[in-house]
Specification:
- By secondary structure, this protein is mainly alpha-helical.
- The chain has 2 domains: about 80 residues, Homeodomain-like (Arc Repressor Mutant, subunit A); about 110 residues, no CATH class.
- It is elongated and about 65 Å long.
- Keywords: DNA-binding, Transcription, Transcription regulation.
């Protein structure tokens, strides 16, 4: 099967399909929830198969598995990049909101759990693994995920850590970025493990981290 990257939108399309894809989403056309859900589920099913890649994902195969016409799919998603962006959104947990006045342990644990939730979902885990490996072939998709998901969450966590430093709860001689890496690394590692059988003990790891971050007398 030829490798397909983010710009390939017309694979296997008929003339009617191309005409339907020429004006994706124009005129405020509402998406039909049933079709959207079927297409997203089909996409996740296909990339979850052994040996599947994002580059090898066929939009025609997605339409067939979802039981929708190619025209319906292309009118909603003009190319693979657009479809995968919506699939990423579908498997991304809402950003956790933790009050700044919550106990330090609760705040740091919420940051770690936010990462772990994505990694515990087999579908999200598979998709993120593939994106990490194939990001050079999908630069727009990778950049959008960084901009819309990772960057805001990173900024929120850095603000949380900086506030804790200013309040004297944790050491101020350690860069917030270093602390954030220590908080999220165990949960992030789960994304790239073969299974979810060995879950990190986030509570114990956060407790250990806080012990090391307490200000010295």
């Amino acid at each position: 099967m030829p490798v397909q990257t983010e710009g390939e939108a017309t694979e296997g399309m008929t003339t009617g399909d191309r005409e339907g894809a020429a004006q994706p989403g124009v005129g405020g056309r509402p998406r039909q929830g049933r079709i959207d859900a079927a297409v997203i589920a089909a996409t996740l099913d296909l990339i979850g198969q052994d040996g599947a890649t994002l580059s090898g994902l066929s939009l025609v195969a997605v339409a067939q598995r979802a039981g929708v016409s190619r025209g319906s799919l292309y009118r909603r998603w003009p190319d693979k990049n657009a479809l995968l962006a919506d699939v990423l959104t579908a498997v991304t947990e809402p950003h956790p909101l933790v009050p700044l006045n919550a106990p330090l342990r609760e705040r740091l644990l919420a940051v770690a759990e936010g990462v772990a939730r994505r990694a515990r979902d087999p579908r999200a885990r598979r998709l993120l693994r593939l994106l990490a490996v194939e990001q050079d072939q999908f630069p727009t998709l990778a950049a959008r995920y960084e901009r819309d998901v990772l960057a805001p969450r990173r900024a929120s966590a850095i603000d949380l850590i900086t506030s804790a430093q200013h309040a004297g709860e944790i050491r101020s001689d350690v860069a917030p970025e270093v602390i954030l890496t220590a908080v999220t690394a165990p949960a992030l590692a789960l994304t790239f493990t073969a299974s979810d059988r060995n879950q990190p003990d986030l509570d114990a790891q956060i407790d250990l981290l806080i012990t090391g971050l307490r200000p010295t007398a």
